[in-house]
Specification:
This protein has helices spanning about 10-20, 30-35, 60-65, 70-85, 95-110, 125-140, 160-165, 170-175, 190-195, 200-215, 245-255, 275-280, 305-315, 330-345, 345-365, 400-410, 435-455, and strands at about 40-45, 45-50, 55, 115-120, 150, 180-185, 220-225, 255-260, 285-290, 300-305, 370-375, 380-385, 415, 420, 425. With about 475 residues, it is α/β, with parallel strands linked by helices. Helix 1 runs antiparallel to helix 2 (about 30-35). It binds pyridoxal-5'-phosphate.
């Protein structure tokens, strides 16, 4: 077979992709007919595809390319590390410099007494680690019946068996089932579910479902609660201000472990190093991945507080780990990514420059006839599409029909903005500049205008009864 390069004609690449490549979360037969879009290059917030389109990436890949594309320092570090020590493991009483340095750097950045890192290859793997770690922790403390983990409907924690089970997405559970001992409570999604309540009252009510669930199960059976500070894949659901303080109160009162899944919200996304700082959450364990390496290498992990690490460390082996836990090349690249984030004050850029600039423009989208609500924390935003703003109505069409149509217009306008049902979401690289935000907003507005025209002409601006 010939070498596959960026320069092979798009149609040939698409045919090979259709013949041999099974895509995640994709109806592969339909995609094969339509043909994939093939990305060939990235620089800053910009992507180029095989047809030469210059696309602005409003999603930072999959919420991960925090420092932007094309930073050659990371490749330099990867090559140097591969030449020096391409691989060694961290099992069996060995370590290596990149894993040591990265663990120490993460401990320095993480709040409170989150001082210990267990590495994984991805966010899903890290959450699988968390399931096993919290259960093992309670075993050691002589409370082995504490096994249930409480999570939320429409949460996302990855797509391995454990991660998919922690997540509250029925579509994922339907494909392969769900492991035992994980239960779900409602999500703090005021826009869709808050009815006549104020956001604050609704947030409180949803948090109190945790207390009710603990009492129903018996606290002697509950190991932990897990939640994303902001639900990402669920549609960028930003909880009401009352939600996390009440969750924290309940977790403290009943002494269960709190896991903050910071795979998206970690490493600057919310305008602080961690979303837990933005929302005043004090987790025992944080899940990290994505922005840890800005996606330049696959790496994830669990940041663990002193007490849990002490219990886990002093009571025999924890029979768990991955061949690539703390992989030296991935760790070296992640460390270089964090160096760039610190040296270039990228978190401060989000907080002081990019967020305030985007927030004003994002809020103004609520003037658009299709847009009911526009929310933004840091550089993580959503807009709710609606046929009737006053009643926060859903569309009569099947959920996602409208969102998909608007997403198609974004695609055509060289903007990557995702849809989750009938919500549009963004999470651009953290280095986005005001000029680039103007371009993003111009393309988003054009896509909304065109989408609105299509919806009207197809008779889809109709509220569900
Ligand atoms: C993406 C994501 C994961 C899963 O990470 P992978 O690296 O895809 O396994 C877990 N939790 C959250 C909150 C995520 O957004």
């Amino acid at each position: 077979m010939n070498k596959i390069t960026n320069h092979m004609p798009t149609a040939e690449l698409q045919a090979l992709d259709a013949a041999h490549h099974m895509h995640p979360f994709t109806e592969n037969a339909a995609l094969a007919k339509k043909g994939v879009r093939i990305m060939t290059q990235g620089k800053g917030v910009w992507l180029t595809d095989s047809e030469g389109h210059k696309i602005i990436d409003g999603m930072a890949g999959l919420w991960c390319v925090n420092i932007g594309y094309g930073r050659t320092e990371l490749g330099d570090v990867a090559k140097a590390q591969m030449d020096q020590l391409a691989y060694y493991n961290t099992f069996f009483q060995t370590s290596h410099v990149p894993a040591i340095a990265l663990a120490a750097k993460i401990a320095e950045l993480a709040p409170g007494d989150l001082n210990h890192v267990f590495f994984a290859g991805s966010g899903s793997e890290a959450n699988d680690t968390n399931i096993r770690m919290v259960r093992r922790y309670w075993d050691i403390k002589g409370q082995s019946e504490k096994r249930v983990i409480i999570a939320r409907t429409n949460g996302y924690h990855g797509s391995t068996m454990g991660g998919g089970s922690l997540g509250g997405m029925s579509g994922i559970h339907a494909h392969g089932g769900k492991i035992a001992g994980i239960v779900h409570i409602g999500e703090p999604n005021w826009w869709a579910q808050g009815g006549d309540m104020t956001p604050e009252a609704f947030g409180l009510m949803r948090a109190q479902e945790l207390e009710a669930k603990i009492l129903e199960l018996g606290v002697e059976n509950v190991a932990a609660f897990i939640g994303e500070p902001i639900q990402g894949a669920g549609g960028v659901i930003i909880p009401p201000s009352t939600y996390w303080p009440e969750i924290q109160r309940i977790v403290d009162k009943y002494g269960i472990l709190l896991i903050a899944d910071e795979v998206i919200t970690g490493f600057g996304r919310t305008g602080n190093w961690f979303g837990s700082q933005t929302f005043g959450i004090r987790p025992h364990i944080m899940t990290i991945a994505k922005g840890l390496s800005s996606g330049y290498q696959p790496i994830g992990g669990s940041i663990v507080c002193d007490e849990v690490a002490e219990v886990m460390g002093a009571n025999g082996d924890f029979n768990h780990g991955y061949t690539y836990s703390g992989h030296p090349v991935a760790a070296a690249v992640a460390l270089e990514n964090l160096r760039i984030m610190q040296d270039e004050n990228i978190v401060e850029h989000v907080r002081d420059v990019a967020h305030p600039y985007l927030k004003a423009r994002w809020d103004a989208l609520t003037d658009h006839p299709l847009v009911g609500e526009a929310k933004l924390v840091g550089l993580m935003g959503s807009i709710a599409l609606t046929p009737n703003k006053a009643s926060r109505a859903k569309f009569a069409s099947e959920a996602g029909t409208v969102g998909y149509k608007v997403r198609e217009r974004c695609f055509a306008n060289d903007l990557i903005m995702r849809h989750v049902g009938d919500r549009m979401i963004i999470a651009p690289p953290l280095v986005i500049t005001p000029d680039e935000i103007d371009i993003l907003i111009a393309r988003a507005t054009k896509s909304l205008d065109e989408g609105y025209a299509i919806l009207k002409s197809e008779g889809l601006m109709v509220a569900a009864s």
